[in-house]
Amino acid sequence: MPSTGSDHCRGVSSQVSNESHTSVVADVAAFGDLHLVDDVSAADWIVASVRNFEYDVGSLLPVTFDLYARVLHPASRGSSGDTVDVAWSEVAAANGRIAHAAMEWLAITGDWKFEQQAVQPGVWDQPPSTGSLPPRTAASLAGVLTRFTATPSECWFGVWEGYGDAPFQPGTVPLIAMPQRKMALLRGPLHAVGTTFSRMRWPESPSLWWPDDRSWCVATDIDLMSTYIGGSAGCIETLLGDQRLEAYPVTVDQTVHWRSDTINPTPEPPPPPAAVTPHRSWRRLQPGRPSITSRGPRPAPPGDSPAR
User: Fold this and answer.
1) Rounded to two decimals, what is the model's pTM?
2) Do 47 and 178 form a contact (C-beta atoms < 8 A)?
């Protein structure tokens, strides 16, 4: 494995304290400000609390928090280098749909073609990122959460093992035993949440992150266009009031699959393709399967992939 973190993960420059009760994996340097560790017991409390992949918020986060919130990944409008974020509420209004806490991208756009490939000229040009928290949104979220932890310099970051260019070799590090979502564990400061684990064009943010004092926890599932947060009442209420985030209150029982929108009509999926290239598997749900699902190696980046 390469030993230089700057070529593989891009994070905010800062020094991380060497004091930790968990050791860094031998021969592995920092990835930006994050260090891969060889003891994943810091995540045991999460594994013990989450549900067994029941397609709801409690399958992603511990069920022990006071309140929960959903942060929607924004779409974007404009060309590369000159883009603006587009809220889901704006997209819903443009399509005559209703914005609400359980809305789904398919339901507010009204067509499966808008999931990854197509655009709505004048409304949005790029869909929300799937499985990765956009850097600007991550920074805004971290800016709120840092006020609600006593350990912002000591945080934990779970990275899904299935990333095609993950910062570790399969089978070489211990993994967090999250249901159907095993993850490697890294440690570092909260401001390093913007680190991405990709050497290609795919954005790959941490899948799970929390401070050492366990005051809150954040989950970005690999198949979802939303990020979920559990925390104290004060933390979640402050997050919901931050104008930089499109956030809604949710319960721990809120479902998280593509049929979760019970207000806007959800389009029926198109017939499955006649053949799928064997070495590729799609990021999102295969049509007709109303649940989040694990996936294999990454497909080619958007634009290089054939239409579904």
Assistant:
1) 0.80
2) yes
